[in-house]
Amino acid sequence: MSDTETHLKQNYIGGKWVDSKGGKLHDVINPATEEAASTVVLGTAADVDDAVAAAKEAYKTYSQTTREERLALLGRIVEEYKKRGADLAKSMAAEMGAPVSFAGTAQVGAGIGGFLGTIEALKNFEFSEQHGANKVVYEPIGVVGMITPWNWPLNQIALKVAPALAAGNTMVLKPSEECPGNAVIFAEILDAAGVPPGVFNLVQGDGPTVGNAISAHPGIEMVSFTGSTRAGILVAKAAADTVKRVHQELGGKSPNIVLPDADLAQVLPPTVQGVLVNTGQSCIAPTRILVHKDRKEEAVGVIKAMFDGTQVGDPAQEGGHIGPVVNKAQFEKIQGLIQSAIDEGATLETGGTGLPANVNRGYFIKPTVFSGVTPDMRIAKEEVFGPVATIMEYSSLDEAVDIANDTEYGLSAVVSGDPSKAAEVAPKLRAGMVAVNAWGPGPGAPFGGYKASGNGREGGLFGLKDFMEVKAISGIPA
Ligand SMILES: NC(=O)c1ccc[n+]([C@@H]2O[C@H](COP(=O)([O-])OP(=O)(O)OC[C@H]3O[C@@H](n4cnc5c(N)ncnc54)[C@H](O)[C@@H]3O)[C@@H](O)[C@H]2O)c1
């Protein structure tokens, strides 16, 4: 058994791999084969207590480290991380089905990106500012609890751990029980980089047990959560009694407003691509594609060709194909949503229910395109989290903006077309991020949403500030 396989059955607390106090073993299922990919321990509230105690102790010294010491530590983590890229990719391919080529580039790269963006932000960060008669200083918050999902697992871990370390906090991470292997390797990387004992702690487990214990823990000053809006609400409720800071990165149902005069062959591929990347399992996937009614046929042609040309296949194989969705529950949910669109009268342009022709097992979804989708349909309202695009029509740009904003979510939006015209549309969109002719924000942009998509921002300078307290000192010389 490799070290990583052994460590999957343990927690990392106080700089050591330790057995859980009462945890049970759980098989993680490979979504391509429906067989066990790995075995992880599901920890307990007692494990969280131990991790918080270690983090509190470590905070006494780590919170006092200098910018230079933290920069050196973050730099060493990046170096160690680069050595484990292949292991990380293999683990994610087996546990959540991201094809190994894509996992090794985009998924692993996103984790490094989180660290590099934080390093840049920390280099120039003003820890002290003068505001009138008040000196305002930024300080670490204390022990931060972190709960992360499986879809871009390293990205989510890095966007929390890097700024928490940069700010001088200590932490307890609970990764997704659907995809825990990369978090174990990540802890091994931090250990190899010399992160002091207790600064970073990893407790494996499920949401209702370990996630809830983190959210409610009186020794944790902040909980940073990424996942579904459903679980994010439960985290906030559990956190309320201890008045800890709650940072939420939640679900989305992002629109893509295609401007009436846009060159469709040029603007659709780079924006609609976001519905296929990672098998559609991105919180910012721009799935509601809004096209002018006179351009609908043309848009359907371009989008259908993209989806028909997308290969679905084994995540263990190198290549540009997409893999399965993460698990059986997601597979069944997506099948149900596809069927609901058919039942509610949308036009199925390609794809549909059932397995793609080239596979006979696994949680693979046919790349699917619907046109004639109206805002009242379930497929237009609910987050699908699969390779399913919906094409909706508008008559005027005002109507397009109304449809785009007609969602409980507000994470991200896309505008496809002339950037100067897109600049006039962007302020009207109720979303934390607007990308023009791309499906995601640019490097270093604050990442986060409006409305039911969350609170707070991650990445770069804004992410760093979100992991800090603000202290006002008045009555001293400026
Ligand atoms: N806004 C963003 O930045 C962002 C990024 C990635 C994913 N997401 C969202 O994440 C969701 C997909 O991820 P998922 O299926 O892993 O989400 P999920 O909410 O089921 O799980 C996320 C994490 O929360 C934990 N959890 C579940 N119930 C909990 C509870 N009661 N208390 C505490 N923790 C609990 C899980 O164990 C897991 O670690 C999608 O909705 C997606 O849009 C958002």
Automatic annotation (TrEMBL):
Aldehyde dehydrogenase domain ranges (all copies): 17-473
- Work out whether the entry's keyword set contains Protease: no
Pfam families referenced in this protein's UniProt entry, alphabetically: Aldedh
**EC identifiers of the protein:** 1.2.1.3
The record ties this protein, via InterPro entries, to: Ald_DH/histidinol_DH (IPR016161), Ald_DH_C (IPR016163), Ald_DH_CS_CYS (IPR016160), Ald_DH_N (IPR016162), Aldehyde_DH_dom (IPR015590)
UniProt key word Kinase: no
This entry's Gene Ontology molecular function terms read: aldehyde dehydrogenase (NAD+) activity
Q: Which top EC class is named for this enzyme in its record? A: oxidoreductase
Sorted UniProt keywords: Oxidoreductase
Its catalytic activity? an aldehyde + NAD(+) + H2O = a carboxylate + NADH + 2 H(+)
Family to which this protein belongs: Belongs to the aldehyde dehydrogenase family.
Q: What is this protein called?
A: aldehyde dehydrogenase (NAD(+))
